[in-house]
Fold this sequence. Notes:
Shape: flat
Strand content: 15-25%
Order of helices and strands: EHEHEEHEHHHEHHEHHHEEHHEHHEE
Strand order of the largest sheet: 2-4-1-5-6-7
Bound molecules: guanosine-5'-triphosphate, magnesium ion
Helix content: 40-55%
Low-confidence stretches: none
Mean pLDDT: 90
Number of strands: 12
CATH topology of the largest domain: Rossmann fold
Distance between the termini: 28 Å
CATH architecture of the largest domain: 3-Layer(aba) Sandwich
Amino acid sequence: xxxxxxxxxxxxxxxxxxxxxxxxxxxxxxxxxxxxxxxxxxxxxxxxxxxxxxxxxxxxxxxxxxxxxxxxxxxxxxxxxxxxxxxxxxxxxxxxxxxxxxxxxxxxxxxxxxxxxxxxxxxxxxxxxxxxxxxxxxxxxxxxxxxxxxxxxxxxxxxxxxxxxxxxxxxxxxxxxxxxxxxxxxxxxxxxxxxxxxxxxxxxxxxxxxxxxxxxxxxxxxxxxxxxxxxxxxxxxxxxxxxxxxxxxxxxxxxxxxxxxxxxxxxxxxxxxxxxxxxxxxxxxxxxxxxxxxxxxxxxxxxxxxxxxxxxxxxxxxxxxxxxxxxxxxxxxxxxxxxxxxxxxxxxxxxxxxx
Length: 355
Ligand SMILES: Nc1nc2c(ncn2[C@@H]2O[C@H](COP(=O)(O)OP(=O)(O)OP(=O)(O)O)[C@@H](O)[C@H]2O)c(=O)[nH]1
Ligand SMILES: [Mg+2]
């Protein structure tokens, strides 16, 4: 999963990026933007690793990209194809808004900056949709205009009208055909967006309260937000792990920004985690909320979905209580389920399949 960090110049994107990458960023001098693969923190995963002491450990990860397309800047009007491609293929965006320059901080300003960004994303999507409509119109003049072109035209027109009225992608009711017609455009407004309000060090501990109305407003339009001080977080990320919690607590900050941010991303993308566990490998897998056992199998490997027979499922709580998969099974906690079974957050799976 790829998450792009965007925001105005100097808003603190790189500082935040460095804080969450804890020195793991793969800097490259020839190629921008810079990527960093960050492990998704999960105590359940840690527990499984402790329990199985496996040969291989595969935690869930997020590929963060700093300053993914230089949006919102004058120079940003002309993107390299590469930057635009990176942005279009991102699964979610983190928008960093500067609230540390003005003192006292100005929540109204933060809110209007977020809305400006959303408008810019909308503007870019509208250009894509309009271009497509023009091309469709030309093709439809041809002698054997295909029916599927008309279907696509309708879907594009519907989305265009909605965006023009200020709606967001997620506000629009789409059926399966319309969703498919629009998927190829990789619309920016369809990407879950998390807002990081970057506040000054002096107000870090009270920021959530100061910005509660702004955060509430963002939630009401389907955007998750949180406050942080990127400068503090970067300093803390450079400390020994054992000292970090203490230092944060001393500043009245409950947890490191990476944890907060990743939780907001998971929630915005409606992701849960399932596990596959054994002495060979403990693996955490992200999955869309409401997915079936078949979809979970497919996310591991398409062979597992193709030859799917059954899935064995044990919940994380049951494994912890029994202290292992086998003891949980012996205690009657294992469920044998079919393709349509809905996977819950924390389930451990064993897929039976034949190809
Ligand atoms: N006081 C304060 N300064 C900050 C904070 N976050 C970032 N800065 C400062 O703001 C400046 C710009 O930060 P960057 O992280 O480089 O910002 P950026 O968004 O990556 O900037 P560009 O890459 O130029 O667009 C640096 O001097 C940071 O030290 C913060 O939370 N508090
Ligand atoms: Mg930067």
